[in-house]
Amino acid sequence: MKASEFEKKFDDGENIVEDLDLSHARRPGEEQKRINVDFPVWMIQALDREARRMGVTRQSVIKTWLAERLQQQG
Fold first, then answer.
1. Is the pTM of this model over 0.90?
2. Does residue 69 fall inside a structural domain?
3. What is the per-residue pLDDT across 9-65, written as a single tens digit (0 to 9) for each?
4. Torsion sign, CA atoms 31, 39, 62, 55
5. Cβ-count burial of 53 within 10 angstroms (0-12 exposed, 13-18 middle, 19+ buried)?
């Protein structure tokens, strides 16, 4: 499809999602990067208890708590 056809379809309010290749789409700033963090054993045990209580993974608890704290600071 030519760009002009795509633009016309968009301008006419037609659904263009089917014309997009979203297989490599990424949200800016949302890319993942792996890091290593060392925690004391007591902290890991507490995180695991909270994760079980919430029904999520340890990683989810850490990410959620960090996100909440960072939003408070921002």
1. no
2. yes
3. 889 998 988 888 888 888 888 888 999 999 999 999 999 999 999 999 999 999 999
4. positive
5. exposed
With contact defined as beta carbons under 8 Å apart, do 37 and 44 qualify? Answer: no
30 domain-assigned: no
What is the rounded distance in angstroms from the CA atom of residue 66 to the CA atom of residue 11? Answer: 41
At what angle are helices 41-54 and 58-73 packed, to 10 degrees?
A: 100
Instruction: Give CA separation, 74 vs 43, 67, 71, in Å.
Output: 26, 10, 5
From the list 22, 28, 19, the residue with the least C-alpha distance to 10 is 19
- Residue at token pair 């999520």: 56
**Residue-range definition of the domain harbouring residue 54:** 3-25+37-73
Domain membership flag for residue 32: no
